[in-house]
């Protein structure tokens, strides 16, 4: 019975550890490295202070949004790899779609005009 408990405990520990690793990877991919602002913490892998802080915050029981908010409070919204769709940042999501739709519209007008000239 004691060995079954040890195996169950070990398996539970492995499952929790894998869940934390996935959460840690997700958070690292969601944050821009403020040392150079050139890529995410996961991609650059040269910001050990933030990586350790992420591990510490995960171990303390915070979820992804709480951890991201923690770093936004320190570094500002620029630290997010994907900006939140609120306020002026909504334009980041809307403008590319509008440009795409406008481009399709003008291409359709161009070809329609070419058809009428022939």
Number of strands: 0
State the order of secondary-structure elements, H for helix, E for strand.
Answer: HHHHH
Distance between the termini: 87 Å
CATH architecture grouping of the largest domain: Orthogonal Bundle
- Given this structure, which CATH class of the largest domain is correct? Mainly Alpha
Write down the oligomeric state: single chain
The number of domains? 2
Q: Helical proportion?
A: over 70%
Distinct helical segment count: 5
Average pLDDT, rounded to a whole number, is 79
Cα radius of gyration in angstroms: 23 Å
Largest sheet: none
The general outline is: elongated
Range of strand content: under 5%
Query: Unreliable runs, pLDDT <50, ≥5 residues?
Result: none
Describe this structure in words.
Helix content is 72%, strand content 0%. The protein is built from 5 helices and no strands. It folds into 2 domains: 2-82, Orthogonal Bundle (Helicase, Ruva Protein, domain 3), CATH 1.10.8; 86-118. With 118 residues, it is mainly alpha-helical. Helix 1 crosses helix 3 (48-59). It starts with a helix and ends with a helix.
């Amino acid at each position: 019975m004691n060995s079954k408990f040890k195996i169950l405990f070990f398996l539970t520990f492995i499952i929790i550890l894998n869940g934390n690793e996935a959460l840690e990877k997700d958070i690292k991919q969601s944050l821009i490295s403020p040392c150079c602002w050139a890529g995410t913490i996961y991609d650059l892998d040269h910001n050990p202070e933030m990586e350790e802080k992420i591990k510490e915050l995960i171990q303390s029981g915070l979820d992804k949004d709480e951890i991201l908010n923690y770093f936004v409070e320190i570094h500002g919204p620029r630290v997010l790899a994907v900006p939140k769709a609120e306020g002026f940042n909504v334009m980041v999501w809307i403008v590319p779609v509008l440009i795409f739709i406008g481009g399709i519209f003008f291409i359709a007008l161009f070809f329609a005009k070419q058809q009428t000239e022939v």
